[in-house]
Design goal:
Blueprint (H helix, E strand, L loop, with lengths): L19 H13 L21 H10 L4 H11 L2 E3 L2 E2 L2 E2 L3 E3 L10 H9 L5
Antiparallel strand pairs: 1-4, 2-3
Length: about 120
């Protein structure tokens, strides 16, 4: 059961079968029929919903000069995490989180930089 009704978020496309690109293309071409130019303000929210692969991240961490103790700390930080959703007073079952970097954590920025970098060693 969706928490937010579909009619209140008609311009949102996450987890929907219809595509944002189709919507954008339609509105750009329709606007070009009335105007000589179209301005589009686009924001990439990819990192807000990241799904960083832990084995890839750990392989990249092993390429930089970190102590084994530091790598073990990062592994502990990324493992054995779960989440529960609460909606209208009802709690879902725990779901294990085996991807992504914990947002708001002290290591988020460093791990994100490592994940996005390709080290040339």
């Amino acid at each position: 059961m969706p928490a937010i009704s579909a009619h209140s978020i008609v311009d949102q496309f996450a987890f929907r079968p219809t595509g944002a690109l189709t919507f954008l293309f339609h509105h750009v071409t329709a606007t070009q029929e009335r105007c000589s130019y179209v301005r589009c303000h686009m924001i990439n929210f990819y990192k807000a919903f990241d799904h960083d692969d832990h084995p890839t991240l750990l392989a990249k961490l092993n390429k930089i000069d970190l102590t084994p103790h530091a790598i073990k700390s990062i592994i502990c930080h990324l493992s054995s995490r779960s989440q529960t959703l609460k909606c209208k007073g009802q709690l879902s079952a725990n779901a294990e989180i085996n991807t992504s970097i914990v947002q708001g954590s002290g290591m988020e920025l460093m791990l994100s930089v490592v994940m996005e970098s390709d080290f040339m060693y």
